[in-house]
Amino acid sequence: MKKINDQGLNKDGSLKTEKQLVWSMWPNSIQPNIEKQIVKTKCNTAIISCNTRGASIAYQINGKGYSEKSWFVYSKPLQIKEGDKISALAIRIGFKESEKAVKND
């Protein structure tokens, strides 16, 4: 069997807990921050981006995702109407969640 240097294992071969894995990702035990996402609107289209590599973006339009307490996962530019309020968060496992960005078109 080929050794792959699995970072999910302790030295004794037991599995690391999720908390142990997250702590192993933090340089000098300091939790990294996600850069704040950017929401740009033009011609009834909203584009959301984040400069943190590997971050996922969640968004709501007018305070609603799948429900009022949930968010959509951003994957492509959004079609919006005049007056729509776009809220966005950037998320990456092990990183501090970004501040919510809000843009009123």
How is this fold's topology laid out?
Elements: H1 18-25, E1 38-42, E2 45-49, E3 56-61, E4 72-73, E5 78-79, E6 85-91, E7 101-104
Antiparallel strand pairs: 1-2, 2-5, 3-4, 3-6, 6-7
β-strand percent reads 25-35%
The domain count comes to: 1
Q: Summarize the helix and strand pattern as letters.
A: HEEEEEEE
Give the rounded overall mean pLDDT: 86
Which sheet architecture does the biggest sheet show? 4 strands, antiparallel
So how many helices? 1
Strand order of the largest sheet: 4-3-6-7
For the secondary structure, the number of strands is: 7
End-to-end gap? 57 Å
Which second-level CATH architecture applies? Sandwich
Q: Please name the fourth-level CATH homologous superfamily.
A: Immunoglobulins
Backbone structural class: mainly beta
How much helix, percentage-wise, in residues?
under 10%
How does this model look, in words?
By secondary structure, this protein is mainly β. It has one domain (31-104): Immunoglobulin-like. It is 8% helix and 30% strand. The chain has one helix at 18-25, and strands at residues 38-42, 45-49, 56-61, 72-73, 78-79, 85-91, 101-104. It has a 4-stranded antiparallel sheet, with no helix packed on it. The chain has a 3-stranded antiparallel sheet with strand order 1-2-5, with no helix packed on it. A hairpin with a 2-residue loop joins strand 1 and strand 2 (45-49). The mean pLDDT is 86.
